[in-house]
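Sample pair:
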Amino acid sequence: RRAEAEHAAWEARGRVPSEIDVYWPDDLQFYVAEVLGFDASTGKHVLRYHIDKQVEELDLSGEKWYRHLRSDEEGGELLRRITAVFEAKRTLLSSPEDADREGGGSAG
């Protein structure tokens, strides 16, 4: 019965995990959100962000997102590495002069 209930919840969320990390390009970072549901008629998922409890309807097919990995899970190390890469990119994007000095800029 538990497996059936979990499968029904999976289907109700539009085959998306119950917690995901959604990338916000303007902020250059991921935010954790709980997937509350899915509206098949619009193709949008209903999300509640952990950081501010705001609820949003979002078409995830056009977004960058991943299943949320808790730090105590096996994938925690992978999440830390991904976060480090994005932090490094954020640093480069915030100061392009430094990137050019370090050899990260375009040749020309």
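The CA atoms of residues 92 and 99 lie 6 Å apart.
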